[in-house]
Amino acid sequence: MKFALFSLMMNLPNAVTGEALTAQQKFHNILEQARLAERLGFDAYGIGERHGAPFLSSSPPVVLTAVAAATSRIRLLTTVTVLSVLDPVRVAEDYATLDQLSGGRLEMIIGKGNDPRHYPLFGIREEEQWVSLGERYELLKRLWTEENVTWQGTYRPPLHDVTTWPRPLQQSIPIWHGSASSTLSTELAAKYGEPLFSSNSFHPQAKYKALIDHYRERLDYYGHDANRAVIGSGAGSLYLANTREEAIRRYTPYYNAFHATAAAQHNQSPFTDLEDNIARGPVLIGSPEQVIVKIMDYHAAFGHQVLSISVDGLSHSEQLEQVERFAQDVAPVLRRELPNSVWNDPPVLSRQIPSPASHSSATWPSAISPTFQI
């Protein structure tokens, strides 16, 4: 199994100490977290997109560019890019720039988002979200793969003979499709034969398994090989301790603080409290051995190759502690027990460029096996 650490950059007063960080302090902490993730061997680091308190993640390409400058190896994810409300021309330009500056480390997860506050901000109705996402994604793909694009649709002015610049550094920026609540997202992923990323955050396993199963069925329908499906999964919150009881005691104030926010309540999670979520839901709270067993159980249901975790909401010191403990006590077991080939190869770049590490005449490989094959 491969691992991504991600953040929605939630900036609430600490539920235990009451400490409140400034926005600048939170941005600084995110960069420290990303550097630590790279040192500890995580495969990817992700920034989500939200447009409203308590989240500071309204501009993922800007934050990920700073992360790219602070790191050298780790892949950069968007978790997710809310493409249902964004101009594909702007997205194509911003993220191609990030791909260039990061040395081709970008992978994008697209979705319609799960916070309804962004729809009035960007001028569409919530009931349009799926149609909007499909149209905008079709245009984004054309802008990244074609030149002199002529296009007409509903959600932006027509284009005539347009080529966006810069072009991505990668031959093809890998696109994952975020999945949380509807078969419309799994249908879109299957249609294009592209990887799926299940949010797996707020509901019992069966809800997300049904969406993943639908994705595999529709892959076959569209002529792709479902046996080669690439799937990622979120995991709710993470808190490791020596015992289950200690983990519950230490994490409960954070859990209650987050689930009191409007953003969390919008998801209508069915769990009555933290212990119910541990028993029936996706949160990873307990000893390392208990968390490993739970992840293995979810893998048996989902068949996913990538797991993303988040430590949002904890104190900064606890975030670093939890990330380090996961890397030392959990990840090695899962890497050994659940190996796969996702992210084994370097990104496939569109042309030869000087190696940023050596600044010599060495070049990146110009023909490497694709990162994803479905």
UniProtKB/TrEMBL annotation:
User: Which key words are in the record?
Assistant: Monooxygenase, Oxidoreductase
Q: Which residues form the Luciferase-like domain?
A: 10-304
**The UniProt record lists the keyword Lipid metabolism:** no
Spans annotated as Disordered: 354-374
GO CC annotations, alphabetized: cytosol
Q: Name one GO molecular function term.
A: monooxygenase activity
The source's domain of life comes to Bacteria
Name the UniProt record assigns to this protein: LLM class flavin-dependent oxidoreductase
Write down the species: Paenibacillus xylanilyticus
